[in-house]
Every structure is written in structure tokens, then in C-alpha cells.
Amino acid sequence: VRDTDGGIAGKVTSGETVSCVADGDEGELIRRCQAGDKQAFGVLVNKYMKRAYFTALGFVGDHDHALDLSQAAFVRAYQAIGGFNPEMKFFTWYYRILKNLSLNLLRDRTRQARPFAELGDATLLSMSDHSQDAAALAERNERKELVWKAIHALNPKEKEIILLKDFQELSYKEIADILGCPLGTVMSRLYNARKALKTKLERLMV
Amino acid sequence: MSGRMGEQERTQFQELLVKAVDDELSEEEKRRFEQFIDQYEACRQEWQQFMNIKEVTQEMKFRNPPDPIWETYWSDVYNRLERGVAWILLSAGTIILLVYGAFKAVESMLHDTQLETIVKIAILLVVAGFVVLLVSVIREKFFVLRRDPYKEVQR
Hints:
Low-confidence stretches of chain B: none
Strand content of chain B: under 5%
Largest interface: A-B, 59 and 38 residues
Radius of gyration of chain A: 18 Å
Radius of gyration of chain B: 34 Å
Order of helices and strands of chain A: HHHHHHHHH
Order of helices and strands of chain B: HHHHHHH
Helix content of chain A: 55-70%
Largest sheet of chain A: none
Oligomer: heterodimer
Distance between the termini of chain A: 33 Å
Distance between the termini of chain B: 54 Å
Number of helices of chain A: 9
Shape of chain A: elongated
Helix content of chain B: over 70%
Number of strands of chain B: 0
Low-confidence stretches of chain A: 1-21, 113-124, 126-130
Strand content of chain A: under 5%
């Protein structure tokens, strides 16, 4: 997926998949990390940094915190990698560390009574589309902004599954692995999240 | 045609609806799904509403940060890793020096014949209070860590 500026956009491309079980190369990299090889860890970081950043961005909503949290989560992962099973997929484990850090940040923000909407959502989304006239573009942007607001208004579990499926474009199996739940639960959570999103949107549009 | 769905049918439809929105239905599932939307008006409406939302979310994406972010990403992580080790060394060294300094100070104070006994007692109380506070804080941190619900997540 490429954005209008020519860069790779936030959605994860299909070539990069997340499954529960690591491929041979990744297992070997993890073993090297466990032996203290920082360069091997660098390979893992380079492989997953974009996915990590955009995952954090989905959670916290602003660039600076997303960058900081995604890097801090890599540091935590390296510090704890000794106890990690090299047969498992690194990102599934890393995702949980990142989610934990992001939730801590959001909890602190709530304590500071700082609403999520203040954090510059408009700058996060690439909304330009040169192929349309100005009126149509404005209408589409307005729709996207409404959907974005509705997504933020969802409860954390609903928001998480929408971000994983519709923004990170993971398969149901990948989501099940990351969330540690059965496929059936993923389907029902996705249904409920989309239904809640529909309800929020209807309220916002009134 | 329309009517009321049973609980089991409803659950089946919800799963098919999720897959239909994501364009992940098999041929068999597609046939079953079409039966639902032909038979129930509410199903057709719900499908339409879900598709409208999907259409918008499909176009939404996060803005990509400037390239230099990715170029320096690993080195930033590496620096953090190194700094983490540096902080541990610095902290350990500082604690050893402080404990040694405090021990020497108390030792020389106790041997100081010119210092009044009441002052010696007062200083010992201050040191004892500090030690108790320190132990209490460490114990509290340890207690919180043990009961942290996210502890397992990080492992």
C-alpha cells in the first residue's frame, strides 16, 4: 500500500505475515539474541519496526509517543529475550509488550484528563486524493474523520480488533495468535466491534 | 422475503457477515450468505451498513513518517540498550559509594570523642530511619511487581 506522497503507507503489506510459529531464520536470530548478539536483534528490529510503529500509533494516536513506545518495547523485548521460546513468533510476543506499554501510557493520560482527540488525529491520516474534485474530496475527508472519531470512541478491545483487521490487515488466524484467543472469538469480537462502530457513527452523524 | 432468525442462524450469519465484509467467504459460504440476505431484509441492511464502513476504513491509513526515522530507528534502539546498561552500572556504583561513605561517616562519628552523645544518637536515628524507608520502598516495589497483572505479558 502506498500513500499519495509515494511512501509506504501505514497499512501493512501482505508480504509480511504474522503467525504464531517462527520460521527457521527468525528462530536462529532469536537464539543469537539470547547469546547476546545485538546485531541479530537489529535484524529483528529492522524487520518489524514499521509494523511496531504503526501498531503503537493505532494505540496512542501520536507520532512521538508511537515512536518512543515502539522503541521502548524493543528494548524491553531484548532485556527479556532470554526467557523467550525461539520456536514462537517474535512479533506475537513483542505485540503484547507494546500493548502493555501503550495501555500504561493511555492510563496515565486518563489520569491527566487529556482526551485522545487532542492528540492531532488529523495529522495522522493521509487523506489527500488528487483524483477527485474538491467537493468530493472534502466529503470523503469528512467521512474519514467521522469514522476515525468513532473508532476512538470504541472501547479498547473493540478498537484493537478494528485496528488489527482493517488497518494492519492481518488475517483472522494472525489476530487469533496475537490476541491469544480462538478463531471463533476473533469473528464474534470483530462482528461486535463493527456493530459498535456503526452505532457510534450513527450517533456522530446525528 | 423476511422473517425472524433463530439464535443459531443469527450466530452463523454474523460469522458469514464478518467474512463477507472482508471478502473471505468460500464458495459454499458465499451461497449460504446469499441465502441469508435473500431471505432476511435485516441481514441485507446490516451487510450494506457494514460494507459502507469497510469502504471508508479501507481507504484510511496512517501517514508515513519521514524516511530518516526508519534510517535511525535501529541505532536509536541500540543507544537505548547501551544506555540501559550504563544506567545499571552507574546506579550500582553510586549505591556502593553511598553505602561505603555512610558507613565510614558513621564509623568516624562514633569514634569522635569530641562529639556529644546526643548528637551521635540523633545521627544514628536519621541513618536508621533512612534505612527503614529504603527497605520499605524496595519491598513495596517488589510487592507491586509480584501482583502486576501484566507481568506475564512482558515475559
